[in-house]
Write a structure and sequence with these properties.
single chain, mainly beta, Laminin, Jelly Rolls, 3 domains, ten-stranded antiparallel sheet, signaling receptor activity, Neuropilin_MCO_CoagFactor, FA58C, Milk fat globule EGF and factor V/VIII domain containing
Length: 467
């Protein structure tokens, strides 16, 4: 800044020195060799002398975060060196003031926006909730459509092979690989997220959903590396049908690529919904601003294009115990208290005995679900379990269906030439989702194990609808 109060113009000139210093509030900028110009109320990141006939390259004022209370610092333009995006509950040029009133704390659920409205006229006076896409209700508490399913980053339905990235960071002498396959929401461990290379100037992480799907939103999360919090503070989203030509989500108000608010710490989850939802097979997240490094864990929200992919009731218990039967049942050590009943085969069931296990390990075993009425079945999610330390799961299986429980049809491949064998699980806890290329209508569904680890053990959910 010179004595006329103007900022030094950016230039690539190598003439003269430029210093990068963290100045406290109330410091002065050096001008013509003297500390004469007072800094305004914000803290500056640089000491840039504007001597006569000398131009220096300006630094990024957000190298030091001037925003308090978790605010996000963004580099300004023209006469504004920086500005702050304040978290909910804070205002001010550097987010140092606390907001008060009926909107603080925010009474709106699901990232709804609280807006002040005087004399609203009902029990919730002085405010209304502006709901994000997909939610309604006085406080945005209701989901207004069904396309809000977690697609499987955390649960494992999206496999490691479906994830890729522009680069990968290798830590601890190159022994720690922070690869894209680790970018799963709530992933645990010392190395538990994706981090881009320090040399990657345009990093991205991509998920291939293997088919065209409707995407409603994304949940992001940071991580800790060597005891330090790292996270993506702002990002863009691009999508594609073929993996070659990508389109960025747009901000209609500004006619520019939309920048989504990211995280403010390493552990809290931040949800952003797409308005409107997007249709894609490939989706990329492009970090725009990162804290220390571009480190990310995330989950995708969406649904199948046919709109018929709702859980049919294994996990929720809408399907009763009496509707679930099996060819046989195993008892650990022959003790009744450790019986692995068919109705234990519910996705994510917990407990000592928390799945169905067959008495024999052979291909004559089956698990059957009676849906009571004919339903359209579009997919299945499977999961293994652990029996007193022994990891057990079904690695491959067939599916059969029936309207009467007597005459069965084996599900065939897309051409109808041969019986389809579905890939199952590879551990005892991850979800493995398989979508039927051609949905079928049936009342009864059977899972027929073909390959397994240790014992035939299964937890599961059926997907479909009442069509």
């Amino acid at each position: 800044m010179n004595r006329q109060g103007r900022w030094c113009s950016p230039t690539t000139s190598q003439e003269g020195p430029a210093w990068r210093l963290g100045l406290p509030r109330g410091s002065c900028l050096e001008s013509d060799g003297g500390l004469t110009d007072m800094v305004q109320s914000w803290t500056l990141c640089s000491l840039l002398p504007c001597l006569q006939n000398l131009r220096t390259e300006a630094c990024d004022f957000c190298d030091v975060n001037h925003c308090q209370n978790g605010g996000t610092c963004l580099t300004g333009i023209n006469e504004t060196p920086f500005f702050c995006i304040c978290p909910e509950g804070y205002i001010g040029i550097d987010c140092n003031e606390t907001e008060k009133g009926p909107c603080h704390p925010n009474p709106c659920h699901n990232n709804g926006e609280c807006q002040l409205v005087p004399n609203r006229g009902d029990v919730f006076t002085d405010y209304i909730c502006k709901c994000p896409a997909g939610y309604d209700g006085v406080h945005c508490q209701n989901s207004e459509y069904s396309c809000a399913v977690l697609l499987g980053m955390e649960g494992g339905a999206i496999s490691d092979a479906q994830l890729s990235a522009s680069s990968v960071y290798y830590g601890f002498l190159g022994l720690q690989r922070w690869g894209p396959e680790l970018a799963r929401l709530n992933n645990h461990g010392i190395v538990n997220a994706w981090t881009s290379s320090n040399y990657d100037k345009n990093p991205w992480i991509q998920a291939n959903l293997l088919r065209k799907m409707r995407l409603s939103g994304v949940i992001t999360q940071g991580a800790r590396r060597v005891g330090q919090a790292e996270y993506v503070r702002a990002y863009k989203v691009a999508y594609s049908l073929d993996g070659r030509e990508f389109t960025f989500c747009k901000d209609e108000k500004q006619d520019a690529d939309k920048i989504f608010q990211g995280n403010v710490d390493y552990g809290t989850m931040q949800t952003n919904m797409f308005d409107p939802p997007i249709t894609a097979q490939f989706i990329r997240i492009y970090p725009v601003m990162c804290r220390r490094a571009c480190t990310l864990r995330f989950e995708l929200i969406g649904c199948e294009m046919n709109g018929c992919s709702e859980p049919l009731g294994m996990k929720s218990r809408l399907i009763s115990d009496q509707q679930i039967t099996a060819s046989s049942v195993f008892k650990t050590w022959g003790i009744d208290a450790f019986t692995w009943h068919p109705h234990y085969a519910r996705l994510d069931k917990t407990g000592k005995t928390n799945a169905w296990t067959a008495l024999h390990n052979d291909r004559s075993e089956w698990l059957q679900i009676d849906l009571r009425d004919q339903k359209k079945v579009t997919g299945i999610i499977t999961q293994g379990a652990r029996d007193f330390g022994y990891i057990q799961y079904v690695a491959a299986y067939k599916v059969a269906y029936s309207d009467n429980g007597t005459s069965w049809t084996l599900y065939r491949d897309g051409q109808g030439n041969s019986t389809k064998i579905f890939h199952g699980n590879s551990d005892n806890y991850s979800h493995k989702k398989n979508v039927f290329d051609v949905p079928f209508y049936a009342r009864f569904v059977r899972i027929l194990p073909v390959a397994w680890h240790n014992r035939i053990t299964l937890r599961m959910e059926l997907l479909g609808c009442d069509e």
